[in-house]
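Feature request disguised as a bug: please show the residue count (379) next to M28 family peptidase in the output. Example input:
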Amino acid sequence: MKRFVLIFILFFSLNCFAQDSTYTRKIINILTSKNFWGRGYTKNGMSKAADYLSAEYKKLGLTTFNGHYKQHFNFPVNTFPGKMMVELNGKKLIPGKDFIVNNESKGLKTNANLEKIDSLNFQGSPNLQVVLKDKLTWSVATEVADYTIIQVNRKNFTQTPKNINVEIENKFVADFDASNVCGYVKGTKYTDSILIITAHYDHLGGMGSETYFPGANDNAAGVATLLSLAKYYAIHPQTYSIGFICFAGEEAGLLGSKYFTENPLITLNRIKFLINLDLVGTGESGMTVVNASVYPKAFAMLNKINNEYKYISKINSRGKAANSDHYFFTEKGVPAFFIYTQGGPSAYHDIFDKPETLPLTEYNDLFKLIIGFNKKLME
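Example output, currently without the count:
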């Protein structure tokens, strides 16, 4: 009978994790949908995502820090809401696939002959340049330059560029409104002690009126994992409080997390540890922990749990790096790890980072590893 009970508990536990995996996939599909337009700066993409996450926090029963799930802030950003047309040698190029415009570029309408600078660079005018690239990756700029640079995928365009016809619209927004989305599950014993899970929900948005960047691995996967953990902890409150923060403005320079650390909704010394999740949708080649060498005891604890239960095939140690939202917390003295997985699809900051190609290889194991690590931190 005892053996039967143990088998039942094990089956029920595994089924819960499977259900969480289904929930995670659902969240990723929603956040990467056309409706959210890359969770960026045009078509209200980021605002819609913040509303959705706030509603999900409420549905899960998370408590607000200050009466609201949203923490508003603003920053400047260069956007491309309208025309996005490039013809090279009379051939119309496809935005995102055949070309991208540099994120800091100004709008431009011109038809110009191109002068070869070298094998990869071509000049159309003092303020127009064409660059041939093997891979097109986009980003976010908080200012506008006095030039326009167009990157062309040379795998899709094998001719020598001689003439270009361009019509690109940009719009500089001096005070783009964004929101961090914050909530927590109250601890059952040490309510003033808190563990924090973070992930940025913003991505690159859209380039023109017809092309957007889904951002499945970067970082819908991290947000979906965060929500799955929130769902778990809402059902299973811990002795410590567990907080959840979805940051905006990460792609524009870690702006949401910087704002939070400068305007904290809780006293930062209450945070006993923070785990930041970014790019966690793969795992075939293991995972990496940024700040592992900064907090060796915590990293040893994480490895001990992983080795005992054989969750992740390999955990790589990395030192301090200002490459995601953990950074400004550690600068303020908050111990933090930034976790990202490796292997699988190589899509990154491009239109091919889609949910249908995201394997979530190590989702269940990462989920259990984080729960086990948090449990040890509370002992």
